[in-house]
């Protein structure tokens, strides 16, 4: 086997580690390490110096069978960080091999981190594994979302084979706040059940953790969702959870952007300023 062929057989491996620090005036990227095709652009300050925005870029543009991406984020005391991506993540046919992405986020006391990537498109035949682990210290806040489209139905490319596994684990000082595991098998008829995807091809989740979810907050969240029959919001003691299903990721993103706008003053003490990259 030629060296290039051997590389593709093994798949791409990429690691990105980012560490953020803050003082009384600003948040900055203090530590960066990467290997493989996973990088960041320069730091942006679209709101003020206290919030550091980073765009995480995966130059190959897609994740194939055998690939593994690992992202580690550390937000030190009082740092405010917003992380997003420039476009959709594409998960391609695995040809018998799985692809993985693991994201670990540690948020120190008094810090805030937003993980707001654009959607994932899972192509027919993909074997995708995604995990998100968030570790919160005292008085730390986190907001994150994900959107997933199974196949590309608008192009008559349907998700009829393959599987998707997703894990979300949020803890405060080692104490579990929220844990969820999902497994979507393309051939499982349960996908069409009303308690699952109700025969929709897209879905999204949004989580805000680390703050007490009062009655006023949950009411504001429900008002933001309006009368959309495919979306709902609920709460645990320190976690607000929103869900949406549908057939257009754009619809879900627009809906949750409105929800994010309503909730951001509560968990981040900031008005919502959508990243410019979302409009490109």
Radius of gyration, in Å, reads 19 Å
N→C terminal distance:
41 Å
Helix content: 10-25%
Count of DSSP H/I helices: 3
Please tell me the overall pLDDT.
94
User: What is the number of strand segments?
Assistant: 18
Order of helical and strand elements: HEEEEEEEEEEEEEEEEHEEH
Unreliable sequence segments: 1-8
Q: How many domain regions?
A: 1
> What structural class results from the helix and strand content?
mainly beta
Measured by DSSP, the beta-strand proportion falls in over 45%
Task: Explain what you see.
The protein has one domain (about 15-280). It has helices spanning about 5-10, 215-225, 250-265, and strands at about 15-20, 25-35, 40, 50-55, 70-75, 80-85, 90, 100-105, 110-115, 120, 125-135, 140-150, 155-160, 165-170, 175-185, 200-210, 230-235, 240-245. Strands 3, 4, 6, 7, 9, 10, 12, 13, 16, 17 and 18 form an eleven-stranded mixed sheet that branches. Strands 2-1-5-8-11-14-15 form a seven-stranded mixed sheet, with no helix packed on it. It is mainly β. Strand 17 and strand 18 form a beta hairpin.
């Amino acid at each position: 086997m030629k060296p290039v062929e051997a590389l593709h057989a093994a798949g791409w491996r990429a690691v990105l580690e980012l560490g953020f620090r803050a003082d009384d005036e600003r948040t900055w990227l203090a530590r960066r390490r990467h290997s493989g095709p996973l990088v960041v652009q320069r730091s942006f300050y679209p709101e003020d110096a206290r919030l550091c925005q980073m765009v995480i870029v995966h130059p190959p543009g897609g994740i194939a069978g055998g690939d593994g991406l690992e992202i580690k984020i550390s937000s030190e005391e009082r740092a405010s960080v917003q992380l997003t991506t420039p476009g959709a993540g594409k998960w391609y046919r695995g040809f018998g091999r799985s692809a993985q992405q693991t994201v670990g986020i540690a948020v120190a006391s008094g810090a805030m981190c937003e993980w707001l990537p654009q959607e994932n498109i899972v192509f027919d035949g993909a074997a995708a594994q995604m995990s998100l682990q968030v570790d919160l210290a005292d008085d730390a806040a986190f907001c994150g979302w994900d959107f997933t489209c199974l196949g590309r139905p608008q192009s008559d490319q349907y998700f009829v084979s393959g599987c998707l596994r997703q894990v979300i684990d949020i803890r405060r000082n080692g104490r579990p706040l929220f844990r969820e595991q999902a497994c979507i098998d393309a051939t499982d008829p349960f996908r069409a059940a009303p308690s699952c995807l109700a025969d929709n091809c897209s879905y999204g989740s949004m989580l805000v953790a680390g703050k007490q979810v009062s009655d006023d907050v949950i009411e504001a969240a429900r008002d933001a969702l309006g009368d959309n029959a495919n979306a709902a919001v609920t709460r645990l003691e320190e976690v607000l959870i929103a869900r949406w299903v549908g057939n257009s990721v754009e619809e879900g993103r627009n809906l949750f952007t409105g929800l994010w706008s309503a909730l951001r003053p509560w968990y981040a003490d900031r008005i919502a300023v959508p990243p410019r990259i979302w409009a490109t």
